[in-house]
Design a protein that fits this description.
15 strands, 1 helix, elongated, 8-stranded antiparallel beta sheet, about 220 residues, Immunoglobulin-like, mainly beta
């Protein structure tokens, strides 16, 4: 489903966009570079150090094989940031971990994505100014961020700040933010009951679960 937010800018984009916006894609990760050519006719960031990327991918468009994924216009959570070394804005769309804020879901492991749509905008919540649409082509297949436990047991899940796992015994839990920073480490004894993580702030996280015969990574929002 195409989202034409600015027909005028979209028309301007057609001639020079390939030079302005370049990207590589592998295993569900799009690495973007914008503005190295010094041509801002697709989107003018107006000297902002950071701007936002609205992202979607729809099964109905044939863009992927496992459902619809869409950001809320009021909550775009992907950014492009000026990099002095590159002399351009750079950003990453990691579909293995990205929470789509409108459909409130993440893409499951093994999803085949033919393309994603993006719009550049100046704010996370809405926009004062924005680009037109751009398709970023694939295809790309998401890698496994979460793995099943040995013996095909049910994967762990986090809901409302609590870990639900079928693993038993002593576990070590390490919670990371999406930048790789360790937020919290816990040593717990799992007995089938939910485990309270006691996180102090809302956000998107990855958690590594380690223990006897278990090594699992869970992505979750809190």
């Amino acid at each position: 489903m195409k989202k034409i937010y600015s027909l005028m800018l979209a028309a301007l984009a057609g001639v020079t966009l390939s030079a302005q916006l370049t990207y590589t894609v592998s295993n569900g990760v799009y690495n973007l570079t914008y503005g190295k050519s010094g041509d801002w006719s697709f989107y003018d960031p107006q000297s902002q150090p950071t701007f936002y990327v609205h992202v979607w991918s729809a099964q109905s468009d044939g863009d992927n094989n496992q459902g619809n994924f869409d950001d809320a216009w009021s909550n775009s959570n992907t950014t492009m940031t000026w990099d002095n070394t590159e002399g351009a804005y750079v950003g990453t769309i990691n579909l293995n971990t990205k929470l789509f804020t409108n459909s409130n879901n993440t893409m499951p492991q093994g999803t085949v994505v033919q393309r994603i749509g993006v719009v550049f905008k100046n704010k996370s919540n809405g926009a004062d100014f924005q680009s037109g649409d751009r398709d970023l082509e694939g295809p790309t297949t998401l890698t496994a961020m979460a793995v099943s436990e040995a013996g095909g047991k049910t994967k762990a899940q986090v809901a409302a700040g609590k870990l639900f796992t079928s693993a038993k015994g002593d576990l070590e839990l390490t919670v990371y933010d999406f930048g790789g920073k360790v937020i919290k480490t816990l040593k717990v004894n799992a007995n089938g009951n939910p485990i309270e993580l006691n996180l102090s702030q809302k956000g998107l996280y990855l958690m590594k679960i380690s223990g006897n015969n278990i090594s699992e990574v869970v992505k979750f929002a809190y």
